[in-house]
Amino acid sequence: MSSMDVDPVEEVEMAYHGSQTEASSSRAYGAVIIDDAHPFDLETYISGYSGRAAIDRLIYIISLSPSLAPQAFKRAFQLLTVPTQRDTDYYKTILGTYDNVSSRPAVRLPPLDELLPDHSPYLSWVDETNERNNAEYRKLEVELKTYTGNMIKESIRMAYRDLSTFFRVTGSFEGSLRHLTKSREYCSSTQDLLEMCLSVLELLLEQRSFSHIPTYVFKAESALDSIGTSGHTSSSLGFGSSASGGGAKKIDLHQAVEAKLALCTALSHLANGNYGKATHDFLQPMSAAALAPWNGNIVFVGDIAVYATLCSLATLGRSELKARVVESEGLAGEGEGMKELLDAWMASNFRAVLGLLEKYSARYLLDPLLGPHVANLTALIRSRAVVLYFQPFATIRLERMSAAFGWTVEDTEREVVALIQRGEILGRVDSQNKILRARSTNHRAQLYAHALKAGAEMQGATNKLLLRLQLQQSNLVVRKAQPPPAPTTGVGASESAEQ
């Protein structure tokens, strides 16, 4: 029941390239190269995802990395016809994306006929799935009309929820969101309202529409505050359970909801480039069990660890990073290469830090949520590393800094000058001798200046007091006019008048 009028290539470019920053959009199309210096294991990466999330990320990889496009194309068609997949528009979208990449200049990819010699099984799947979708849609519409006519409030809410789920799995996000918002009128309890808000947030994350997330996070928090903690578990809202020790471990309702709301808020801040606030929310308690069933269907918990670690390095000081990330039990530091990155940072081995960021840059760029912010986060981490390296020194040669960071002297000088201009480094550069000097502070001069300023202020106050004293002695002070006495009334007043 999804739209068939939008060109698939334009749809992919609008969905995945519309939110990119200026830094990432300036990157040439298909510039993410996979080689020995920039490894990327597609199967390992995509194994953490399922359903629409896996296909969406494969399409994103096809659009950005020609070297991975054939492998991602085959993997996407393997996932296309799984029983739970009912969005037939994916067939044209995958073909259109691959064809668009193949038509780019200087891109040589295997032809479609070689990768997909027989289209008939997929065309049959499209026809059968569309027929099944139409039949289910008619059934759900009849149920909604029946419940509406009978005025059964709870049944109407469930019917709207089922229709929303149907539109979502068939690719019509607009229809899904419309039916979810309609179901709000028939929510009879706070728990129903909370379930509706979480469903909308899940839909917004899948659609990557981050502007409306704060509104529904606020509504969900208000609903959560109204629900008592006694007797509620995550299963009451369909959050599922996690296997632990051979048994099913129930997750507390508040714990599960707060983890999901923190994730939504963090991704919203990340999308807006507010990395400081994103760090605060990413470091909130999260786990795969608390995020179920979003884990893998919306975003993989391993990727959340990568987001948290990079945002922490870009925004937190050394002591705060050690307390909140290195010594904590949160997700930060658990992603691929993140422990090495944190160890190198805490050891002040900034050359290794920059090397690891470059090594895993392909992995970051091929993430649709992180990719648009890789350039900004890397620049922030690099600048913070330079500032931390220079802190203990009063004077240092640029050659030594260049060796510490693996840069040329000219690159180091440009980086240092930019930091001085932004006020992040208090120093100056001797361009002739290639020396960076910190601004020296003459404490004795500061003490004398402070004493002279205090003396001048005291002298001015004393002069004002002397002037006022002289004016009073000469009777030149203008006093405030006194109001005339009020007329007296009563018996005493009448007697004095007769006298």
From TrEMBL:
Domain PCI: start-end pairs: 252-443
Main location: cytoplasm
UniProt-annotated stretches for the region Disordered: 479-499
InterPro entries per UniProt: PCI_dom (IPR000717), Rpn7/CSN1 (IPR019585), Rpn7_N (IPR045135), WH_DNA-bd_sf (IPR036390)
One GO cellular component term noted in the UniProt record for this chain: cytoplasm
Alphabetic keyword roster: Cytoplasm, Nucleus, Proteasome, Signalosome
Compartmental location: Cytoplasm; Nucleus
Pfam families named among the record's database cross-references: PCI (PF01399), RPN7 (PF10602)
Sequence similarity: Belongs to the CSN1 family.
Protein name as catalogued: 26S proteasome subunit RPN7-domain-containing protein
Lineage: Eukaryota, Fungi, Dikarya, Basidiomycota, Agaricomycotina
